[in-house]
Amino acid sequence: MKAAPTVNGSLEVTGEKFPLNESGYVYIDLNGDELSGWNEPYGYVYSDAIGHFQVSLNIPADVPVGSYQIRFDSNSSYGELYVKPLPITIR
Q1: 13 lies in a domain?
Q2: What is the average per-residue pLDDT within 51-57?
Q3: What confidence tens digit (pLDDT) does each residue in 6-25 have?
Q4: pLDDT of residue 1
Q5: CA nearest 42: which of 67, 65, 10, 3?
Q6: In this structure, what DSSP letter does residue 48 have?
Q7: pLDDT digits (tens, 9 = 90+) for 74-86
Q8: Burial profile 51-76: b = 16 or more Cβ within 10 angstroms, e = fewer
Q9: Radius of gyration of the chain measured on its C-alpha atoms
Q10: What is the number of structural domains in the chain?
């Protein structure tokens, strides 16, 4: 991440060293339940042939300013992948 995300803005998220050609979701866990919810900003990702991905998450105007976790939810053919959450602060 290059800058602190803001309400009514967007956030570019990139990943590397993922299994090749796999899919999943990146989301901002607004309620801390470690599950992707319908009201949480998310983006579908697909890793490329070298294990990289990039997605832009839109942050709606009604998201409260505060600290959250960016999480990854996999659809991997390798089973559930654990990716350490990334802390962010939305301003």
Answers
A1: yes
A2: 93
A3: 888 899 999 998 888 888 89
A4: 41
A5: 10
A6: -
A7: 876 666 667 888 8
A8: eebebebebeeebeeeebebbbbbee
A9: 13
A10: 1
Cα distance between residue 17 and residue 67, in whole Å: 26
Vertex 24 angle, CA 49 and 32, to 5° = 140
Q: Helix %, strand %, coil % for the chain, to 5? A: 0, 45, 55
Global model pTM greater than 0.90: no
User: How many whole angstroms separate alpha carbon 6 and alpha carbon 88?
Assistant: 11
Q: Is residue 2 part of a domain?
A: no
Beta strands per DSSP E along the chain = 9-15, 23-29, 42-46, 53-59, 66-74, 86-90
Which domain CATH number covers 71? 2.60.40
